[in-house]
Amino acid sequence: MAASGPSRGPLRGAVLVTRPEPGAQETAARLAERGWRAVLAPALLLAPRPFAAPPRAQALLLASRAAARALPPLPLPVFAVGEATAEAARARGFARVEAAGGDAAALAALCAARLDPAAGALLLAVGRGYSLELAARLRARGFRVIRRVVYVAREAEALPPDARAALQASETSHALFFSPRSAACSVRLIREAGLGGQARGMTALAISPRVAAALAELPWKAIRVAPCPDQDHLLELLDTP
Q1: Bridging pattern class, strands 2-3 and 37-40
Q2: I need a labelling partner for 214 at 20 to 30 A (CA). Which of 54, 93, 107, 224 fits?
Q3: Contact between 32 and 14 (Cβ < 8 Å)
Q4: What is the Cα 123 distance to its own chain's centre?
């Protein structure tokens, strides 16, 4: 699906957006503001799961916006992996929210600085199969961690028709990748569509080194990594040579 919106001037080109909804539409709007056309190809399809809060916890940890959006407001202080996730939590009605520096290591360090392992368990809201590394880091610091799966991410079965057509026509000069799993899934979908060679004319923009590593199977023109793991720094790569 292609997306468009108000821009600052003539379009500069098309960008493949592999982020799941509803975040893909947000990224499309940000791209339009910068003068780019978004071609949406969400690699993952997110669905919420029923949630049951544990009887006691001293804080809620959120490692993604998807987790924040899947939860009702809870009367707990929230520690979010980054500012974007913190904003999603505030939008859901959480009142006490603090943001870490954007990755699992930063969130674990923030919890260690602000919380006492003896004060109670940490509630970690996650997608199925996600944040195992974060839970391990926290347990290594002496915390009891209660993981609750609040959403499921299913891999897309094929590229959307608009995205396939844009790739076939060599319209997309860049592609945005936000997680290792969605990057690996996107690579698979592009190859299964017989369009792997189109990567030679595209620059892949990855939000972190781990995401970049998941892109290695395609012959990209270049792979560039955001200096900080957030969307703002990822989009800034579009404006730098």
Answers
A1: antiparallel
A2: 107
A3: no
A4: 20
Alpha-carbon distance 167 to 234, whole Å?
A: 21
Domains in the chain: ranges and CATH: 1-43+156-171+233-241 (no CATH), 47-154 (3.40.50.10090)
Q: Would the pLDDT of 5 be above 60? A: no
- Inform me whether the pLDDT recorded for 201 exceeds 90: yes
pLDDT > 70 fraction of the chain, expressed in percent and rounded: 95
**93 token code pair:** 């009605």
Sign for the CA dihedral angle at 234, 238, 240, 241 comes to positive
Could you give the CA distance from residue 56 to residue 146 in angstroms, rounded to a whole number? 10
Distance of alpha carbon 31 from alpha carbon 232, whole angstroms = 11
Taking only the tens place, the pLDDT of each residue in 155-172 is 999 999 999 999 999 999
Q: What is the pLDDT of residues 106-135, one digit of tens each?
A: 999 999 999 999 999 999 999 998 899 999
For residue 93, the Cα-to-chain-centroid distance in whole angstroms is 21
184: closest CA among 165, 167, 206? 206
